[in-house]
Write a structure and sequence with these properties.
Length: about 325
């Protein structure tokens, strides 16, 4: 049988750093107000790099680490809610940028769960035996969909990209998965609604900016997401303490505190970096994974069990349990 494994990780963020104090100069907020509620201290905001630009750097870094030529890549999946355009896709732009002439490429839209959904999908391509290598990247320039006069949302998000190289293996490393969507609650977190504009329809205004019911999303994460993680662990015949690290979507540090308690695991097993990047949606988990490998918390030697959980707009949520 053929299995899939994560063999390389990489991330990239724009150079421009915007602190909470910087935001306090352009809106009614403060470092204390933001940090005490979210744990966020700063975020990286793009000046001129697009979503595909960020993803391209990640792809190039993955290839360099693996000493691969782009022609050896079979597919590219980019998870994003902030594409450069609907067509060509962000993934198609990345494919062109790196010269991956033999790769098929497409975008996947599942908001903050996007990377988990994309990785779960990509694992099936490899396991089919038809493909040997693929790039799975989460990339966002959320700064372009924020209403910068709305302090309830604009202080929360940042730009960045992260991704993995997925390769065929004879060892099983994807141990369990669970993916969910509840469209009936989608209005709790939405962005970039495009209204009708043909000569045959009444004008419907676009709703470009991201809107969020913060309390509803917070409660959803604590209740539904935590419950789904617990069920996945139980169904996998494991105990929470057998998992080395829980890489959860980086939205709010207080949220991670509460999830830690409900899961019965120490916060030391739940790394956080939203203080540096804010919420980067589909990019948050792969950026965190890449940083954990950089600082040697995660070793990429197949010896650790890692749980990846994304949750957010849609509403969507999903978990993968992998050996890395």
């Amino acid at each position: 049988m053929v299995f899939a494994k994560i063999s390389q990780v990489a991330h990239y963020v724009p150079d421009q750093v915007v602190s909470n104090d910087d935001l306090a100069e352009i809106m009614d907020t403060s470092d204390e107000w933001i940090s005490s509620r979210t744990g966020i201290l700063r975020r990286h905001i793009s000046r001129d790099e697009t979503t595909s630009d960020l993803a391209t750097v990640v792809a190039q870094r993955l290839l360099a680490k693996a000493n691969l030529d782009a022609a050896e890549i079979d597919f590219i999946v980019v998870a994003t809610i902030t594409p450069d355009s609907l067509m060509p896709s962000t993934a198609a732009r990345v494919q062109a940028n790196i010269g991956a002439s033999k790769a098929f490429a497409f975008d996947l839209t599942a908001a903050c769960s996007g990377f988990v959904f994309a990785l779960a999908s990509a694992e099936k391509y490899i396991s089919s035996g038809m493909y040997q290598r693929g790039l799975v990247i989460g990339s966002e320039t959320l700064s372009k969909v924020l209403d910068w006069s709305d302090r309830s949302t604009s202080v929360l998000f940042g730009d960045g990209a992260g991704g993995v190289l997925l390769e065929a293996s004879d060892q099983k490393s994807f141990l369990a998965e669970s993916l969910f969507t509840d469209g009936s609650r989608g209005s709790s977190l939405e962005s970039c609604y495009l209204g009708l504009s043909s000569p045959y329809s009444e004008e419907v205004s676009d709703r470009r900016f991201l809107k969020m019911d913060g309390r509803s999303v917070f409660d959803f994460a604590i209740r539904d997401v935590t419950k789904s993680i617990q069920k996945l662990i139980t169904d996998a015949s494991l105990e929470a303490e057998e998992i080395d690290y829980f890489l959860l979507h980086q939205a709010n540090d207080r949220m991670l505190d509460k999830m830690s308690k409900k899961l019965g695991v120490s916060r030391g097993k739940i790394p956080a970096n939203m203080m540096e990047y804010g919420n980067t949606s589909a990019a948050s988990i792969p950026i965190l994974l890449s940083e954990c490998v950089e600082n040697h918390r995660i070793r990429l030697d197949g010896s650790q069990k890692i749980l990846l959980t994304g949750f957010g707009g849609g509403l969507t949520w999903g978990t993968l349990l992998v050996t890395i």
